[in-house]
Design goal:
The chain is about 25% helix and about 15% strand. It is of the alpha+beta class. Keywords: DNA-binding.
């Protein structure tokens, strides 16, 4: 869908009602403006974390518990910081 908006003398635009409803925008919601490849992209900042469930598809090994998620994050992201056996090669501050 595309909407045509008019810039006011103060640099303001009014988001059409149909667009606000489609994006579930309410007064006071915040928007993020990005300039990508010569185009302005406006993204609502009101995304609910629960709405992202399933975004990446089904997990290959089934549903993971919070402990399994924590363990995987530690292994993947924090291993070089937590691993005390290899302090000389760590990028962590001394």
């Amino acid at each position: 869908m595309f909407w045509e908006l008019t810039l006011s003398p103060k640099g303001q635009v009014t988001i059409p009602k149909e667009m606000r409803e489609a994006l579930n925008l309410r007064p006071g919601d915040q928007l993020i403006y990005s300039f990508i490849d010569g185009e302005v992209v406006v993204t609502p900042k009101n995304v609910d974390f629960n709405d992202l469930g399933g975004l990446l598809g089904k997990p290959p090994a089934g549903v993971a518990s919070l402990d399994e998620v924590d363990s995987s994050v530690l292994k993947a992201g924090g291993a070089n910081v937590v691993d005390t056996d290899d302090v000389a090669q760590s990028d962590a501050a001394a």
